[in-house]
Amino acid sequence: MNDRHVALISAFYDALGRADFAAMERCYHPEVSFGDPIFQEVEGRDRVMTMWRLQLGVRDGLRSTYCDVTADDFTGTAHWTSRYTFSRTGRQVVNEIDALFRFEDDLIVRHHDEFDFKRWSKMALGRPHGLLFGWTPMWRKTIRDRATQRLDELS
């Protein structure tokens, strides 16, 4: 167990819970990459932080909790839960997320979040879209393309 890296992951999630972008950014390596089922691959600290600003902007009243933080000298994991109102639909979302981290220079250089896209789409988008189409590759691509377009507009 690497206590510094456990503390780094905890500091990141504490900052996320406060929407403290400066503190979140301090946890990331300049060459960080981020991925999740929606934002599949985001490169560089500036763009990753833009992605977080975008995500927190479409999530009204984000509350997050985290647990099960583990880390060694090279990698780490955590489980976190985000609770928010999806602003586009006004629907409540509770998303269970497993995070993987890789470290370089005692900073997070890789951050990957994994969650059930179908479950998320049912909560965020509701019926019929989320329920009927949440599992289809075409629907996933549509959601990903919209997110990427919004990120490009802000970058």
Write up this protein:
The protein has 155 residues and is α+β, with helices and mostly antiparallel strands. The protein has one domain: Roll (Nuclear Transport Factor 2, Chain: A), CATH 3.10.450. Helices cover 43% and strands 37% of the residues. It has helices at 3-18, 21-26, 45-57, 117-125, 129-133, 137-154; strands at 28-35, 42-43, 59-71, 75-86, 91-104, 107-114. It has a 6-stranded mixed beta sheet with strand order 2-1-6-5-4-3. Strand 4 (75-86) and strand 5 form a beta hairpin. The mean pLDDT is 91.
Provide a brief overview of the structure.
This protein is of the alpha+beta class and 155 residues long.
Which labels suit this protein?
globular; 155 residues; single chain; six-stranded mixed sheet; Nuclear Transport Factor 2, Chain: A; 43% helix; alpha+beta
CATH class: Alpha Beta
| Corresponding CATH architecture | Roll
User: What would you call the structural class?
Assistant: alpha+beta
State the end-to-end CA separation: 37 Å
Keywords: Hydrolase
GO molecular function: hydrolase activity
Domain SnoaL-like: 10-111
Organism: Nonomuraea jabiensis
Ordered list of secondary-structure elements with their pairings:
Layout (H helix, E strand, L loop, with lengths): L2 H16 L2 H6 L1 E8 L6 E2 L1 H13 L1 E13 L3 E12 L4 E14 L2 E8 L2 H9 L3 H5 L3 H18 L1
Parallel strand pairs: 1-6
Antiparallel strand pairs: 1-2, 3-4, 4-5, 5-6
